[in-house]
Amino acid sequence: MYILGISADYHDSSAALLLDGQLVAAAAEERFSRRKHDPALPSQAIDWCLEHAGIQARDLDYIVFYEKPLLKFDRILATSLDYYPRSYAFFREAALTWFSEKLWIKSRMMRALGVPANRILFCEHHLSHAASAFYSSGFSEAAILTVDGIGEWATATLGEGRGTEIRLPLEIRWPHSLGMLYSVFTAFLGFEVNEGEYKVMGMAPYGSPRYVDKVWKVIRVSDEGAIELDLDYFSYHHTPERAFSSRFLTLFGQPRVAGSPVESEYYADVAASLQRVTEEILLRMARAACARSGLKKLVMAGGVALNAVANSRIQDEAGIEDLYVQPSAGDGGGALGAALWAWHTVLGRPRGFQMRHASWGRAVPGDETRRELARAGLSSVRLKSEDELLDRAVADLMDGRVLGWSQGRFEWGPRALGHRSILADPRREDARDVVNSKIKFRELFRPFAPSLPVEAAGRYFAPQLADQSTPRFMLRTARVRDEMRGQIPAVTHVDGTARPQLVEQASNPLYYELIRRFGEAGGHPVLLNTSFNLRGEPIVASAADAISTFQRSGLDVLYLGDYRVAK
Questions:
Q1: Alpha carbon 490 to chain centroid distance?
Q2: pLDDT in tens, 325-347
Q3: Pick from 322, 330, 329, 334: nearest CA to 298
Q4: Residue 152 carries which DSSP code?
Q5: In whole angstroms, what is the distance from residue 132 CA to residue 473 CA?
Q6: What does DSSP assign to residue 230?
Q7: pTM of the predicted model, to two decimals?
C-alpha cells in the first residue's frame, strides 16, 4: 500500500512516500525548485517520489495533507474579528491567498494528481508533527512535545504515544506561541523570520543573557511550561507589517538593521537572553510532558525542536533516558507525519519503521554527472574505485583544501549529514573563517559542525553522547573536552561547545570511511561539516546545482559521485 504525505502552503513544502508503512522517499520542494523554503504544492518533490518508487499517482492508495485548512482559516477569521479594526490589513492579505488557493487544497491535489476525493485525508498540524517524531523514533512508548509558531489553533502540544496510539490532551493556543516569540526577536535582530532563527541561536554565545528580566516581561509561564504572551508588546497577531509593537521598542530599543554588522554587543546580549528564556520554557514543557505521562523517553517535533542548544539541556537536565527529534522537525516533516498517522491511526497497521538516517532524497545518476560536467566545460577525473576516491579526498583535506561533497541520496531536513556537505580540516584554526567568508558568503560568527564516528564520541565529548539519538542528526550541542578544543578549533564554538554529528558505519559507510581514514592520516577522526550551499540558497540536489555552487564559490575541489573536479 502506497501513502503519500504532503505539506504545503506555508513554508518548506515537502512530500514523503510510504510503502506498507516504510518510508521509501522524502524530499522538500526547495531542492528541486531552488526557491528556499518554497511553500508551493510540492509537485516536483511528488513527481520524484513517485518516480523513485516506480509508480504513478493512480497507484496511490491515500494522499494525506499535514493540516486542516478549514480549521486554520477559522482561526484567521476569529483572530481578525477579535482585533478589528487593527486587523483589517491582516485579514485582507489572508483573504486574498486563502480564497484564491489555500482553501481549495483538496481540489488542487485532485487536479494535480488525478486522484478521487475519497483517497485524500487531512491530519491536524500538530498531530502530524507528533506522528513524525513518535512513529519514526523506534520507541514503543514516549512522552510527546511539539512546539512551533502556529498550526491551526495550537502552537504547542503535550501528550504521549503508546504503540500505535497518540494522545495530545494539552495544547497552547494562538496567539500565545513560543515559536512566534523567537521569531519576533529574530525580526528585531535583523534576520528573516522562518530562516534566521538558527542565526539567532548561533549569535547567542557571543553575548551574555543580561536582559533575561526584560524578556520575561513580555511572557508569563507556568511551572508546566504553559505560556501567555503580553500581547501589548506584539503586533504579529493583527498586522502583517511588523511583528512587534512600539511598547516592545520602548523596552528593547531600536531593531538592528538587516544586513548591518552583527558585532554589536547589545544585540548579541539580547539573543543570549532570548535563548536562555526559550531553553527554560522548553525544559519546563519537557519535564511536564514526562511527568504527566510517567514516561522517561521524549520525542519532539515542530520548528522549535530544531533548537539544538535547548535540546541539549532537555537531554541533560530533564531527567529523561533519551530524546528523539525527527530530523525534518519543521513543517516539511509534517508530510511524513501525516502519512505515518494514516498508516497507524486511520488504518490501524502495526509499527515497524525507525528512522536511523536522513538520506531519503534523490541520488545523482552517473550519466547526469557526465552530461553536466561536459556542459560546464569542466575538466574532471573519474576515480576508478571507492578506495581511490577516499584516498584522494583525504589527501586534499590534509593539504588544506575545502571540498564540495555530493554522494548518494540527499538528506531529509535542514541538516547536511555527509551526503551534500562542504568539508574541511577542523584542525586548521582559519578554516571556519575561510568557509564562512569565501565559500558560504555568510556571517563570520556562524559555527560549523564536527562529524565523527559514533565510537569516537567519548574522546571529544561526554561518552554518553554515543547512546543518544539526537547527535545522529546534528540536533544537540555538547561541550568539547577541554584538552580537545585546541585540537579541533574550527568546529569549537566561542562558548566551548559544538553541534556534533555522530556517524554510524551502517547508515553512511562512505562518509564514515572518509572520516576514519582522515583520522588515520591526521590524528583526529573529525571533519568540519556544513551544508553544501551558498547563503540564501537551498542545499544542492542535482549535479547542476553542485557544479554551479562549486563555480561560484571558493571551494577548491568537488567530489561529485566518482568524479573529482579541481580548480
A1: 22
A2: 999 999 999 999 999 999 999 99
A3: 322
A4: S
A5: 15
A6: -
A7: 0.95
Q: How confident is the model at residue 262 (pLDDT cuts 50, 70, 90)?
A: low
Catalytic sites, residue numbers: 11
Q: How far is CA 62 from CA 29, 101, 183, 451, 566, in A?
A: 20, 22, 35, 38, 47
pLDDT, position 246: 96
User: Rounded CA gap, 314 and 299, in Å?
Assistant: 11
Query: Is residue 98's pLDDT more than 80?
Result: no
The CA-atom distances, in angstroms, between 246 and each of 86, 178, 222 are 14, 20, 27
Q: DSSP readout, 375-444?
A: HHT---EE-SSHHHHHHHHHHHHHTT--EEEE-SSPPSSS---SSEEEEE-TT-TTHHHHIIIIII---T
Report the 10 Å Cβ neighbour count for 380.
18
Q: Under a CB-based contact definition with an 8 Å cutoff, are residues 430 and 400 in contact?
A: no
pLDDT in tens, 514-563: 999 999 999 999 999 999 999 999 999 999 999 999 999 999 999 999 99
> All 3 cell numbers of residue 188?
528585531
Can you tell me which residue has the cell 523517553? 297
Residue 440's pLDDT is 85
Phi, psi of 476 (to 5 degrees): -150, 160
Least confident of 11-15, 100-104, 257-261, 491-495: 257-261
DSSP H or E run through 374: helix 366-376
181 DSSP assignment = H
Contact status, residue 532 vs residue 416, Cβ threshold 8 Å: yes
Q: What SS3 state is found at 361?
A: coil
Q: How far apart are CA 456 and CA 233, in angstroms?
A: 47
Q: What is the pLDDT of residue 81?
A: 79
Q: How far, in Å, CA of 541 to CA of 525, rounded?
A: 27
- By residue count, the chain amounts to 567
Q: What pLDDT score was predicted for residue 263?
A: 63
According to the model, what pLDDT value does residue 149 have? 96
* Rg of the chain taking only CA atoms, in angstroms: 23
